[in-house]
């Protein structure tokens, strides 16, 4: 069974879990990172030298870290993935643009240690990423969905 190492409160883990659910993939999530620790232990560092989450582990021992790399990998290797990660270069580029946008515009302000903003409450976190949320709102009001077809 597919293993996903990471705490469910991590936005990067959340998007991997969402994709697994969307594709109907069975998986085991293993708590790691944050208060759960584990990421600095030698066995985890052997899987992911960055000591971050998420980390994906296949039954055959293949290991992949970095959330967007995991998303691309799962879409390319699992049935149904092409609906969310199309093969056509322009459609794929549009999906990848929003994946990159999420990392640069949404992820940073949502991270408590962010140099952009150090939000301590949900309201403060929403305030920090208001510009990013506005950009997504403008996109969805004026055109096709931000990802997929």
Provide a descriptive summary of the structure in words:
There is one protein chain. By secondary structure, this protein is of the alpha+beta class. The chain folds into 2 domains: 2-83, Glutaredoxin, CATH 3.40.30.10; 86-142, no CATH class. 51% of the residues lie in helices and 9% in strands. It contains 7 helices and 4 strands; from the N terminus they run βαβαββααααα. Strands 2-1-3-4 form a 4-stranded mixed beta sheet, covered by helices on one side. Helix 1 (11-23) runs parallel beside helix 3 (67-77). The chain is globular. 19% of the residues are buried. Mean pLDDT is 83; it is low at 113-118.
What topology emerges from the helices and strands here?
Layout: E1 2-5, H1 11-23, E2 27-30, H2 42-47, E3 55-57, E4 63-65, H3 67-77, H4 81-84, H5 89-110, H6 122-128, H7 130-142
Helix pairs in contact: 1-3
Strand fraction equals 5-15%
* CATH architecture heading of the largest domain: 3-Layer(aba) Sandwich
Instruction: Report the end-to-end length measured between terminal Cα atoms.
Output: 29 Å
Succession of helices and strands: EHEHEEHHHHH
Query: What structural class is derived from the secondary structure elements?
Result: alpha+beta
Per the principal axes of the C-alpha atoms, what is the gross shape? globular
Strand order of the largest sheet: 2-1-3-4
DSSP summary, beta strand count: 4
Query: What's the mean pLDDT score?
Result: 83
Oligomer: single chain
How many domains? The number is: 2
Tally of helical segments:
7
CATH class of the largest domain: Alpha Beta
Give the low-confidence spans. Answer: 113-118
The third-level CATH topology of the largest domain is Glutaredoxin
Largest sheet: 4 strands, mixed
Determine the fraction of residues in helical runs and give it as a percent range. Answer: 40-55%
Query: In angstroms, what is the radius of gyration?
Result: 16 Å
CATH-level-4 superfamily name of the largest domain? Glutaredoxin
């Amino acid at each position: 069974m597919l293993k996903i190492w990471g705490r469910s409160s991590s936005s990067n883990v959340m998007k991997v879990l969402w994709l697994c659910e969307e594709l109907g993939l069975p998986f085991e999530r293993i708590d790691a990172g944050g208060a759960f620790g584990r990421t600095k232990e030698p066995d985890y560092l052997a899987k992911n030298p960055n000591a971050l989450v998420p980390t994906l582990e296949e039954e055959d021992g293949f290991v992949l870290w970095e959330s967007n790399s995991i998303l691309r990998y799962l879409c390319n290797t699992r049935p149904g993935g092409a609906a969310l990660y199309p093969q056509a270069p322009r459609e794929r580029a549009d999906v990848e643009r929003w994946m990159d946008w999420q990392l640069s515009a949404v992820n940073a302000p949502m991270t408590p240690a962010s140099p952009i903003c150090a939000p301590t409450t949900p309201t403060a976190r929403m305030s920090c990423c208001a510009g990013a949320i506005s950009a997504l709102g403008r996109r969805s009001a004026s055109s096709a969905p931000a990802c997929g077809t």
